[in-house]
Write a structure and sequence with these properties.
The complex is a heterodimer of chains A (278) and B (219).
Chain A lengths: L4 E6 L4 E4 L19 H11 L7 E5 L3 E5 L3 E7 L5 E2 L2 E2 L5 E4 L4 E4 L7 E6 L33 E3 L20 E6 L11 E3 L7 E5 L13 E2 L4 E3 L7 E3 L6 E2 L3 E5 L4 H5 L6 E6 L2
Chain B lengths: L1 H5 L5 E5 L3 E5 L5 H14 L5 E6 L3 E6 L6 H14 L9 E8 L7 H7 L4 H10 L2 E6 L6 E4 L14 E4 L3 E5 L2 E4 L4 E3 L2 E5 L20 E6 L1
Parallel strand pairs in B: 5-13
Antiparallel strand pairs in B: 1-2, 2-4, 3-4, 5-12, 6-7, 6-13, 7-10, 8-11, 9-10, 9-12
Helix pairs in contact in B: 4-5
Classes of the chains: A mainly beta (278), B alpha+beta (219).
């Protein structure tokens, strides 16, 4: 019986082992670093019958090949990458069965940004400070604290017996983000924002109709994923999974937890809007 | 005694987002900060609290909003603030060996010049001061150190650097700090240390904790 594992043959632009996040250590400066699209992450785990916090692989813009070294149940959620399993088309948002030697191929997606690959049993990398997720800043968690490379072999946890669903419908996505107003919220509403080039797992920089503003002496305070900061340029930065733990820029709003996943799926150049949420 | 109690004032509360509430003190003075250290440690022991993060004169609590009502949490924090004992945390002094200037501290010359000092004088002032960890944030293990000599106070760099080397010893405003990892940063780099400021296999992982005293030792 071969060990339950998968091997990365082609890692793509950036593939990371992720889970919900590394919690309870922000007072030590440690970020959450969870999946950028927690909704797709949760769905993919559910489809494979995993416990909600099992580690999965987050893939940016497809272009990935994975070999299964043992039979496993797998599911893809998020960006549709025209995936094939042993050459046969494999639908996203649906559980599938791989056998020892199966090859999963992901192409470039036509929409969305990130795909979650969940495998039953979860990716069994060591738990670091309470989580398996990758922290690229501190180079810890995940696979040696870095993005996956060709040849990386990842062990899987014990096989799961049960999955509740074989398939789900993709969640609708409109890039309209419900937002709780903070003091500078008037600068957010009623305009379109373009996701800028300097957007990554730490934060999304948005471009649009902005007004530069003076920032007085600010006292640093805690910040979290979903916080919208307004630096002096007036161009909003929405903090994401790998965000720093404290910051000093004034806040314009907070994207509600239920909607932040959409931003994790917004490619550079996408248009997003904020609407007031009470 | 009454006038002593008033010094701490009543903190301000601000709800931020669905699951976070921030307690803001009147200022970021050391007595207020000491209270925050105590209150934060206590709050981490309460049920349904996910995070208790200290800033400069503020404390933000992330809570389970399905299990905890924000008003009762606020009341708990008010009581906790009023009752926070004046006990001092166990005082520890951590010494950090620093290679000052040259390639290890590429901004030292400019900082010294801007402050009207020689490089040697700037080093003596930085290494001569007693620092206290005010809070830890920004990056894993990055400690904000109060106690920088007035003569070395400089605003942050107008243009932050995209890459600051790991171990950089830096100053900005009234504070000093050590970059645990290579990262972007807007502080002035005056030296470098080989000390491991953050190590996930250590307990606690961050070398410097709120209340710790820190001294920099030139090598």
């Amino acid at each position: 019986m071969s060990e339950r594992a998968i091997t990365i043959e082609r890692p793509g632009l950036q593939s990371l082992v992720v889970d919900r996040g590394r919690f309870g250590l922000r007072h030590q400066g440690v970020g959450w670093c969870g999946a950028m699209d927690l909704r797709s992450y949760a769905i993919a785990n559910e489809l494979t019958g995993n416990a909600p916090g099992a580690a999965a692989i987050e893939i940016v813009l497809g272009d990935v090949i994975v070999r299964f070294d043992a039979p496993a149940r797998l599911a893809l959620a998020g960006a549709d990458c025209d995936a094939t399993l042993d050459g046969e088309p494999m639908s996203t948002w649906t559980a599938h069965a791989a056998h020892a030697g199966s090859r999963l191929v992901l192409h470039r997606p036509r929409a969305w940004m990130r795909t979650i690959l969940a495998v039953d049993g979860g990716i069994d990398v060591p738990v670091v400070l309470g989580s398996r997720t990758t922290d690229l800043t501190a180079a810890m968690g995940g696979c040696a604290g870095r993005a996956l490379r060709a040849g990386d072999r990842l062990k899987l946890g014990p096989a799961c017996r049960n999955a509740m669903h074989a398939s789900v419908s993709p969640p609708p996505i409109d890039f309209v983000l419900r937002t709780i107003a903070q003091p500078l919220a008037d600068r957010l509403w009623d305009r379109e924002w373009i996701v800028g080039h300097q957007s990554n797992r730490m934060g999304y920089r948005l471009q649009g109709e902005v007004t530069a503003h003076e920032i007085g002496a600010m006292r640093s305070h805690a910040v979290f994923p979903g916080f919208i900061q307004l630096p002096p340029s007036g161009e909003p930065i929405v903090l994401m999974s790998d965000a720093q733990t404290t910051g000093g820029y004034p806040l314009a709003g907070v994207v509600i937890e239920e909607d932040l996943w959409m931003l994790g799926q917004a490619p550079i150049g996408a248009t997003v809007r904020f609407v007031r949420w009470e | 005694m009454a006038f002593l109690m008033e010094d701490f004032g009543t903190p301000n509360f601000r709800r931020i987002g669905q699951s976070a509430i921030m307690l803001e003190c009147a200022d970021a003075s050391m007595p207020q900060q000491r209270r925050l250290w105590t209150l934060a440690r206590e709050a981490r022991g309460w049920t349904h609290i996910h995070e208790a993060v200290i800033g400069a004169g503020n404390l933000t609590i992330v809570f389970d909003r399905h299990a905890l009502d924000v008003e009762s949490l606020r009341a708990q924090l008010e009581t906790g603030w009023a009752d926070a004992p004046h006990e001092r945390l166990e005082e520890r002094t951590v010494e950090i060996a620093v290679h000052y200037g040259g390639n290890d501290g590429i901004d030292l010359r400019e900082v010294a010049h801007a402050c009207g000092l020689s490089e040697e004088e700037a080093i003596a002032l930085h290494a001569g001061a007693n620092y206290v960890v005010s809070f830890v944030g920004f990056l894993p293990g990055f400690a904000y150190l109060d106690g920088l000599d007035d003569r070395l106070h400089r605003p942050r760099r107008a243009q932050p650097r995209a890459r600051v080397p790991a171990g950089s010893v830096a100053i900005a405003g009234a504070q000093s700090g050590v970059y645990p990892f290579e990262s972007p940063g807007g502080w002035h780099l005056i030296g470098r240390t080989d000390a491991r400021v953050f190590d996930p296999s250590r307990e606690p992982a961050a070398l410097l904790q709120p209340g710790d005293r820190v001294r920099f030792v030139p090598v």
